[in-house]
Amino acid sequence: MLFDRHMEPCCAWCRSGVRISETEVACLKRGVVSSAGACRRFKYDPLKREPPVPAAIDGSKFSGEDFSIEP
């Protein structure tokens, strides 16, 4: 989903915008706008998208036998 060309428009992921804070984006076309906003000139830039942090693995549920490949 990170490189989907048909993303829902969001100023935080647009080629024309530069994030200046968590909630604001400096847009070349419209000036300072909300990062959640969007306009019809939206062009998706996948390099501006931050993937979610992966969940941590609870190691207490596993033992060494769970990771061995011997029959």
Topology:
Layout: E1 17-19, E2 24-27, E3 31-34
Antiparallel strand pairs: 1-2, 2-3
Tally of alpha and pi helices: 0
Q: Which spans of ≥5 residues are poorly predicted at pLDDT below 50?
A: none
Mean pLDDT: 85
User: Roughly how much helix do the residues carry, as a percent range?
Assistant: under 10%
How far do the termini sit from each other?
38 Å
Question: Order of strands across the widest beta sheet?
Answer: 1-2-3
Number of strands: 3
Radius of gyration: 20 Å
Structural class of the secondary structure composition? Answer: mainly beta
Strand content: 15-25%
Global geometry = elongated
> Total domains, how many?
1
Order of helices and strands: EEE
Note the main sheet.
3 strands, antiparallel
Please describe what this structure looks like.
- 0% of the residues lie in helices and 15% in strands.
- The model has no long low-confidence stretch (mean pLDDT 85).
- It has strands spanning 17-19, 24-27, 31-34.
- The chain has one domain (1-50).
- It has 71 residues and is mainly beta.
- The chain is built from no helices and 3 strands.
In short:
The protein contains no helices and three strands.
Keyword list:
mainly beta, three-stranded antiparallel β-sheet, 71 residues, single chain
